[in-house]
Every structure is written in C-alpha cells, then in structure tokens.
Amino acid sequence: MYAGTNDAQRRRPVTVSTLHKMKQAGEKIASLTAYDYSLAAVVDEAGVDVILVGDSLGMVMQGRETTLPVTMDEIIYHTRCVTAARRYSLVMTDMPFMSYATVEQALHNAARLMKEGGAQMVKLEGTADQAEIVSRLSRAGIPVCAHIGLQPQLVHKLGGYKVQGKDDAAAEAMLNDAKVLEAAGADVMVVECVPAELGKRLAEELTIPVIGIGAGPHCDGQVLVIQDMLGITPGKRPKFSRNFMEGQTSVQAAVRAYVDAVKSVSFPTEEHAF
Ligand code: KIV
Fold this sequence. Notes:
Elements: H1 16-25, E1 29-33, H2 37-45, E2 50-53, H3 57-60, H4 72-83, E3 90-94, H5 103-117, E4 121-125, H6 131-139, E5 144-149, H7 155-158, H8 168-184, E6 188-192, H9 196-205, E7 210-213, E8 221-224, H10 226-229, H11 251-263
Parallel strand pairs: 1-2, 1-8, 2-3, 3-4, 4-5, 5-6, 6-7, 7-8
Helix pairs in contact: 2-4, 4-5, 5-6, 6-8, 8-9
Bound molecules: 3-methyl-2-oxobutanoic acid.
C-alpha cells in the first residue's frame, strides 16, 4: 500500500517532508493539475499526492494560446477553488509569467498565493538565474518547486514547445541548473519534455524529488494536465500523455487508474518518452 491509498485509516495530508520520504523510499509521486473545486475533490480522493494549479489553466480553462496572459488574480481564484476541496493532497500553484521578475515581486506574489489562495507550495520556471529568487522565497518560509526543461512561459523565446536538453552540452547545463536551484533551497523539481536519460540522471543526481512530464519513467514522480489524461484536450494529445478514460466508466476511475499506473511504474512507457 502506498501513501496515496484511499484507505482513510492510513492516509495523511501530504507535506514537503512526505514527498522527500517518498523519494527516499522509492515510492513514485503522482501529481495532476486541477483548477476547480469538483475536480480537485475527485483528484484528492483518488490519492493524488500533489495537485498543481498550473498556469496551463490559461490554455485549458480560458482557451488562450499560451500560459502567458494568466494573471495573479486569476490563479489565486483557481487556487482558492482547489484548496476548498483539498483534504490530503499538497496544493502547489504556479507563479504566472512576470510575477517573479524581481525578488520583491516574487516575495509579494508568492505570499498572495499562500495567504489568499491557500497554496502550500509555489512553482516557478527557470534556470540557475532564478537561484536568488528561490533562495529568498525559501528563506522566507515558502516551499518552492523549480520548473526546468521546457518552460512554457518562454514559448516565444524558444519558438515553440520543443524537447529540451537533447545534446550533451544542453543536458549538462540543465543538470548544473538543477543542482544550483536545489542548493538555493528548491524543495521539489518539475522537469518537462527532456530525453528519458536526462530525466533519469536528474532523479539520480538530485536529493529533492524530481517530478517529470515528458521526462521518462525514471523520475521520482509524474505530473499531467488533467484535461490531457481525461482525453478532453481539444486537438492532438501530447505524446507524453495517455488517455486514462479509455476502458473506464467514470472520471473517478480514470484518475485512480492514473495514480495506480504512476505508482506501479506502468506509466509512462517508451511510447511517452523522448
Ligand atoms: O502549468 C502546468 O500545468 C504545468 C505542468 C505542465 C507541469 O506547469
């Protein structure tokens, strides 16, 4: 039985320390996005360890082309909806584009996510360049997740949503960024769209849990956008996702199937990796 069990006797609210213990014990961390009360309740009940109120809400909830337009007020609103349903899962919220351009902005906005939204951890995209911001947040008592690899907030600089860290130099640079962010005080790392071998090295070489999306099966956990795994995202399903509604008759069952697949390492497989 794992921490994400439905057994009310055994389930305890997930904390940062739970996530670290799960990594040490080799238990995979299951994470999903949610943006509203009803789905957050389903996700929490199904045994998801971390609910991410991602800025992906700009695309999947608001129909925007990118995550960039999401505002602080919008993500606080969605965080409040999610935390109203939260019983066991840890709720992590994205810091929107340009809400952490300076240390002062980062401190002010992270505090809003926690005080007004009820977030228990904030996530920000970046490289070693964000180390000072991570350090100041961490020293202020704010749990921080650093998001490396494909950073959707950089879509216009990158020229699209592309796999990152493909050659040796880029992979080594990403490993270095990750270690600098960990040393600065990041509690968790999300790594998006990198070759599976790099996902494996990140999980092996970092002490903190590494949660992957399109980063192969060897990460310490997995995260997906809930619309992708329910097969309701308009257009083509991302290669790294699976439609967990297939073979299920309810959303509850699909989310439980996702948790089971992550915990038993039957998702992701080669077909979802780069
Ligand atoms: O915004 C989001 O949903 C994310 C995931 C893709 C990790 O950052």
